[in-house]
Structures are given as structure tokens and as C-alpha cells.
């Protein structure tokens, strides 16, 4: 990857398009999300190449290393050198880090969620996934407020339509939000920021712009958050994992409705639901 030319470091770029609307053709400039390849080295060993949005990349590196079990805390890192021109992040740890070089070396992490990424996660989830026992609760109105906060911070999505977004919230407010072309990257950026700044994750929820895949659910468990809320659907495997890992998964938040798929005790009133007979 180091031999490839690098592009501008903006989150978005302008490209000409030909647009068709209501029977008319118009030439215009459009905002396009930037796709950027970042290669991570740990103690001079090539670990992975992540295709990402070039923002908050230090947070991304710390979050990725922690979620994959390479480090357990930021104190293990002696230095992190980012070269935006070369597209590299070189991490030096205070002591030797042992990882399966044959598996990790030259692993390419795509911005989409294809076979390579899923295999990468399932190889490590037994070690890095953890059960979440946080007793945080939300009312239905707070669920809607969390999604409203997510939408309010979605500037890059509104401009390009080409990124995912994740936000860390309490029942009272949005703490931080991150965007990326890779949904897992947006979560890693949140995790990395929290690790570096000593932010407690108890009493928080994660709001997410896309569907809740097994990959997203595993990432939430690694971060240690008990509630994940999304506008779209979860997968069946994600629900199974949420049941096992103690995470409340909420999907299809639209209008004044949503579905709770696992651990409904965290949502006020959910355990009083009547059985619908059709």
C-alpha cells in the first residue's frame, strides 16, 4: 500500500456529476465521501490496512488496537506516529506484544462489511468480546431523543450520503459522535477517544445510523456499552449475540415507534408489553 499515491486528507471531496431529476438533466458538482487507506504497524510489524474516512485517525488506531485485543490500555503505548501523506500509523509499545503474525500480517480491512472483515472479527471475538452488565435504563422518549441527537450531528452524511455515523450518549445528552465510511471504524473512533480521555462508559448508550450486524454488536460489546440503538434492523446473529452478551438491541426507530430485540429490562415499560394476537 505504501507505493500508492495519497489523496487530500479532507473527509469529503467535490466531483462533477450529471443529475437527472423530473425529466431534466443538469451538470453540477457533488460532495463525495473520501476513502482513505491507513496501514497500522505495531513494533515495525504490519498489522492491518483499514479503509476509512481520514478524520480522528489517532482515535481510530487506539480503538482498533483495543477492540482487537492488541492492547488493553493506552498506557501500553509508548508512541504513535501518524503519516497522513504515507497513510501509515506506526505504534511502539512499552513491552513486546505477541499476536498471531501469520493471521494479522497484511490483513486488509475494507470499508464495507465483506467476508474478510467478518472472518477477522470471528477469529478474535472469544478473547475480546465481553458481557455487559451495566444497569443503564432509557425511557421511550429518551430512545427517540438519542436518535434525534444522532441525526442532528450527521452533517457529513447530509452532505455526502456516503458515511456511517455512531454516537455515544447518556439519557441526558450526546457525549460525542463520529462518522466514517466504515461502520466499524466509526465505533473504533468512539472507543479510542474514550480510552485516551478516561471517559467512563457506564450509563451510556450507542446510537448507530445503519443496521445492527453481528460485527457491530461485537464491537459494542468490546467497547462495553449496554444499549445499542439503530434506525435499521438487526440481523438474527446479532440478536443471538446480544442475548448472550447482555446487550439491549433496539432497531427500526422511526417516527414514534421502535423494536426491542434483546434484554428489554433496560427500556422503561418494555416488560409490561401485551402479547399481540393476529
UniProtKB/TrEMBL annotation:
Keywords assigned: Cytoplasm, Molybdenum cofactor biosynthesis
SUPFAM superfamilies: Cytidine deaminase-like
Pfam family, one: FdhD-NarQ
Compartments, record wording: Cytoplasm
Keyword Lipid metabolism: no
Active site annotation, chain numbering: 113
InterPro entries (alphabetical): Cytidine_deaminase-like (IPR016193), FdhD (IPR003786)
Cellular component terms (Gene Ontology): cytoplasm
GO MF annotations, alphabetized: sulfur carrier activity; sulfurtransferase activity
Top-level taxonomic group: Bacteria
Keyword Calcium among record annotations: no
Gene Ontology biological-process annotations: Mo-molybdopterin cofactor biosynthetic process
Function description: Required for formate dehydrogenase (FDH) activity. Acts as a sulfur carrier protein that transfers sulfur from IscS to the molybdenum cofactor prior to its insertion into FDH.
Similarity comment: family membership: Belongs to the FdhD family.
Name used for this protein in its record: Sulfur carrier protein FdhD
Species: Alicyclobacillus hesperidum
UniProt lineage: Bacteria, Bacillati, Bacillota, Bacilli, Bacillales
Gene name of the encoded protein: fdhD
